[in-house]
Design goal:
The complex is a heterodimer of chains A (about 150) and B (about 550). Chain A is of the alpha/beta class and about 150 residues long. Chain A has helices spanning about 1-25, 35-40, 50-55, 70-85, 105-110, 135-140, and strands spanning about 45, 60-65, 90-100, 115-120, 125-130. Chain B folds into 3 domains: about 5-240, no CATH class; about 260-435, no CATH class; about 475-550, no CATH class. In chain B, a hairpin with a 2-residue loop joins strand 7 (about 340-345) and strand 8 (about 345-355). Classes of the chains: A alpha/beta (about 150), B alpha+beta (about 550).
Amino acid sequence: MRKLVIGIVVVIVAAVLAFAFVPRATAPSAPPVASAETAGFSERYQQYSEQALAEAGPDDTVVLFFSAAWCATCKILRDDIAANQQSIPDDVRILLVDFDDSTELKQQYGVVSQHTLVQADSAGEGIARWNASRSLEELLATIVVV
Amino acid sequence: MELLPLSLLAGVLTVLSPCVLPLLPVILAGSAAESGRRSAYLIIASLAVSVIAFTLLIRGASALLGVPTDVWLIVSGSLVVFIGATLAFPALWERISTATGLNRATGELVDSSAKRTGMARPLLLGLSLGPIFTSCSPTYGLILAAVLPTSFAVGFANLLAYTVGLSAVMLLIALGGQSVTRRMKWAVDPKGVFRRGLGGLLIAVGLLIATGVVKDVEAWLVERGILGAVVLEQGILDQVDTGVDEPEPVRIDGGRQTEPPAFLAQQFPGIDWQSADPAIFQAVGGGPPRDGIPALDDPAFVPLAQVVWGDEVQAIVLNDGVNAVRVYPYNVLIWHEIVNDTVDGIPVAVTFCPLCGSAIVFERTLPNGNATTFGVSGGLIDSNMIMFDRATEGLWQQSTGRALAGEFVGTELALHPFQLLTLGDVRESYPDARVLSADTGFARDYERNPYGDYDENDRFLFPPSTLDERYPAKLIMAAFVVGEQRVAVPWLALREAGSLEAEVDGRAVSLRVTDGELVVRDAAGRSLPFYFEMWFSWAVQNQESGVVLDPATG
């Protein structure tokens, strides 16, 4: 019995250690999610940059998606957007913002948690903010009419 | 309340998700290294407190928004490394706790009989994990986004339930780790290899946290579709009626709403909101409803000699040079905000907004030539009173005199000249003045200020949408318009300086204060009407285009 308990705990510890170290070995230096994400990018859905924002037309609606690579619900939405890009209207641009590295943008729009969406005009002026859209469809439906 | 059991369940399920990855090895190794169940309970209890505290601090509020995520990782990671080091090198820990008295202090705090068991380390271990715990649970997200903002109490209860669920599983893990240690005699020896090994493990995990690698690992798992219980939990959330409404997007653009606030729509049913100035949609209810603060019509006056109020009381003073000087002291105005009066045949509204210190006298003649009387609507925009006219039920903002809704949207009321003096000034300059009587027909205690020291402290009842920090928020400004340009001057500084010559948009303007009375003249020598207002309130209205003249800086 003792041995069994010890054994179980040892397995758990080993599993945790494996969680912590194995990925490092198999997925070296490259940013872990970049490749998978870029695959789904297009003009209407891309990584946030000042340039990407500047490219939005004057009447376009910009949606900043504050997503974290470790956030599971964000991942579900990212995949859904990537898979259904053709249904993003011509005047909507979705820009992916890294939640962990974007302190300034978070302050600018008052973003306190991952998986937050911020609707802005083409100049980057915030219009509305909400959380946790689960699908592209839900995201588009939440965009407020200005 | 339907959400409570779900919150508890979500807490339990969270343990299966990648985002608790940093917690698991730390809790497991940390508790296995301690003897006594008490320390396991302590680790989990302090973890729970820390998780709730940092959730409210970091994710429930914007106070710590400026702190980069890295900083929290480094803080937490360093603490875990430190705790690991005390286990790996027990002599070090003994020296530290003896030198600082840390162990004794926390031991006494928790339970005086537990002095020797050492409570500091478990406590610190639990606390260290709060700053980096970022739940990926959709229920937790729902609590933060939808419940906490509408009711702190209900939100907090759900957060508590979630944390209890999370802690319960964590406690099982901690006790499991301990039961192993207890079964191995050799492991109890503080200098034993086993405890040192656990210390080493904590150091390693701490380094992974501090360097952010742990987040990369979580990301790696998520990217490979290992989402833990998130999908299951989302499914439950969709099935169960949580009693929580999907929250509307929060508008962060201030003035572009298209719906009037419900209280205004209800109390002014005749207004065509389509044609209204969008600024009115930002209005908030100040508390009292329409006419809850009663404006005075046909006011009664008494001779100044009968008035006992002190010299320091401020007052709006009307002097047309023909009739007796009329004095409207703040201590009465503060309860009524508007006095509809007629001075030398001119219908005027003497207005005062206590929350933004704005004293303004308008001519109450509408653009169609008809006189009206004004009442207090109960709505506020950036602390400023919204008045309504009784003839057309239109809404007017007091500090700008502009119609925001109703027939005359976009038009402005004409300003009527007045002075802002103290009763002391009045007693000296106009001993024959007549003062607004306390016999108003309303039971109000005019000796008492219902707003307390609001005009002197730095707090707001309704925080303004922007705060211009060039001057103290509640500093009184004298304000006027030159051409199209709105201008403000710090009033006390101007009063002290006595005069100011300046140029606004290429037009000369001259200000003189004599015996507390202000005269503003343009280049042609014409006298310009003016009013008074707290700095923050003027700044909100004139943030972009207003000009400030300061006697101190010329």
